[in-house]
């Protein structure tokens, strides 16, 4: 819908430029005969002057409309760039971990990646514009090991979720947060040391995020 509006606006701009050139040419033509007398010997200067005023008003009106269309085109382009969202799960079936240290998780099974801000090779989301973003994640432990999932922003731990099973059953956990991000800020997930997480075709372990609104100040 937005791209259709942009195409329509571009077409409208081209048409107005055509009319603008046409009016300028007409103005030049009228100016060239401004001092030619009519059949009664009366100069056409007064008529030409009125035509000039009318042309000037028409040109000013067209210029105003042209400026408005250009501003609308820029607004639509920016609105298109504000569409940022992703959703992914761990790619391979099986157990991840346990590892001897906290380890970055790469969610390579991408369901959607509008705006291409999420990198499925590194598992890192990089904010393309300043604004408020919402992130959520979930996971399931691999019995009998605990699961400890951590969400980071620029190497700083923000939130986490944890399961500590007392038996050989699967337990799930999840968490979410809204974050103010600057351009270039990175958000990603880690698996805590000495814990594990499980995933299969049902995509139990996921990482999602989207832009709530942009901050243009």
From TrEMBL:
<protein>
    <recommendedName>
        <fullName>C1q domain-containing protein</fullName>
    </recommendedName>
</protein>
<dbReference type="InterPro" id="IPR008983">
    <property type="entry name" value="Tumour_necrosis_fac-like_dom"/>
</dbReference>
<keyword id="KW-0964">Secreted</keyword>
<dbReference type="GO" id="GO:0005576">
    <property type="term" value="C:extracellular region"/>
</dbReference>
<dbReference type="InterPro" id="IPR001073">
    <property type="entry name" value="C1q_dom"/>
</dbReference>
<feature type="domain" description="C1q">
    <location>
        <begin position="79"/>
        <end position="217"/>
    </location>
</feature>
<dbReference type="Pfam" id="PF00386">
    <property type="entry name" value="C1q"/>
</dbReference>
<keyword id="KW-0175">Coiled coil</keyword>
<feature type="coiled-coil region">
    <location>
        <begin position="52"/>
        <end position="79"/>
    </location>
</feature>
<feature type="signal peptide">
    <location>
        <begin position="1"/>
        <end position="34"/>
    </location>
</feature>
<dbReference type="InterPro" id="IPR050822">
    <property type="entry name" value="Cerebellin_Synaptic_Org"/>
</dbReference>
<keyword id="KW-0732">Signal</keyword>
